Amino acid sequence: MSDAAAAPATLLVADDDPAVRQSLERALTREGYAVVLAPDGQAALERLQAGGVDLILSDLKMPGLTGLELLRHAKAVAPDVDVIMLTAFGTVEEAVKAMKDGAIDFLTKPFQRAQLTKVVRHALERRDLIAQNRALQKRLDDLLRQGNMIGTSPAFRKLMTLVQQVAASSATVLIQGESGTGKELVARAIHDRSSRRNGPFIAVNCAALPETLLESELFGYEKGAFTGAAGRKEGRFELADGGTLFLDEIADLSAVTQPKILRVLQEGEFERVGGTKTIRADVRIVAATNQDLAALVREKKFREDLFYRLNVITIQVPPLREKREDVPVLAQHFLRLYAAKNNRQLDGFTDEALSCLLAYSWPGNVRQLENVVERAVVLARGTRVEAGDLPDAVRERSVMLLHARTGESGEPEGVFQIRVGTPLAEVEQRLLEETLRMNHGNKTLTAKMLGIDPKTVFRKLKQGEADEAGPGESGGDRAPVR
Ligand SMILES: Nc1ncnc2c1ncn2[C@@H]1O[C@H](COP(=O)(O)OP(=O)(O)OP(=O)(O)O)[C@@H](O)[C@H]1O
Ligand SMILES: [Mg+2]
Questions:
Q1: Residue 202 CA, ligand 2 centroid: distance in Å
Q2: pTM to 2 decimals?
């Protein structure tokens, strides 16, 4: 949107020659611009600092602050305001210098009115484009921050159905999942879909603060509660009143803080640190951890009663390797996001690059994928991200190694390679054949290793032979042991 349509752009004209000032004022006012005049560089700078200026037209040679000096100061004071230099005939070198220092254009005196309006219009259009671009980038950022979750896989859809159901209730939710799977995003999604969506969403990272600080952060403190407590401070529980409190990294709660959280969960009340007044807050708790909380309970590192209070509803966020179908859409989503952020024109990924992304195991999950794509966007030289733009570790996985182990030596044996993109049926067939060969034709052992029924081994081997023999021929009962 052009601001010029709403309010006329304000042009600041700096020139020590009153005749030039006057003629510029007349010409530009006739074009519908608001014009302010300055007789020298210093006056221009002061006017600029007062604000409201959209574009500067400055003479190069002025007493006091010269045009070049004004340009340099202007870039520091108002980097978004462009400067057009007005130069006398025969000072091209200086004009070039001004351009190098950041002037957007220059006009050699004497100039035609048409030239003047064209240069001014271009400068203002560019300014609008930059403003638009910024607004778009901000919207992209907001989209991501708003908990805009992306995915199409069955695992993702199942997760989102659960999120929707859970959001409708006020029950405490425990979100579990590996690091980088999107637990915080899930917590926000629950809040955004709940009746509390207009209330606050307050996040606390329980691992980030030492015990005492965490308590005053959660429950607030009264004036004089400890040295340095100059005034009263509301805690996150109070701040989250009417909304959702997200307790991240809940497994890291200390043994001292755990019972205090338990009390809030049970009774909905607490006291500020150093205070006696009981405070009630209407807060929905969503907690998250990447640790196995049940195991910590067994090891007596986490209170069982608190575990059960938190664990009213559990949401397990699947690791990325269990929803590989989402890799392309997520990668494309991050590509668009970071291409816009970095002002890059990128259409997508080459087939090879996409194969690498699909084959990789993503131990760092969606966050790692996001980082890999961001890096690739910066490195990419072509119109698409290539395999070469990906980190070595991701690229190396393009040849998948399938390991089968023998019982005796413990050494990996019977390793074979499968190209990325091999049809699954073929992968299955080869894995079956190789395992059977390693087990010297023992189908029971093979079935056990592969975790399938021996009958399935028979059936699949028969199927494989039939396929090899081609249509119309049935492939006997012989297993393809070579
Ligand atoms: N389904 C998704 N769609 C879009 N972005 C996602 C999705 N899942 C995760 N992300 C992004 O991946 C990054 C990591 O997500 P998030 O911080 O929620 O993970 P986490 O499980 O809380 O990780 P950690 O355990 O390390 O705290 C974020 O930038 C998030 O926006
Ligand atoms: Mg997190």
A1: 13
A2: 0.59
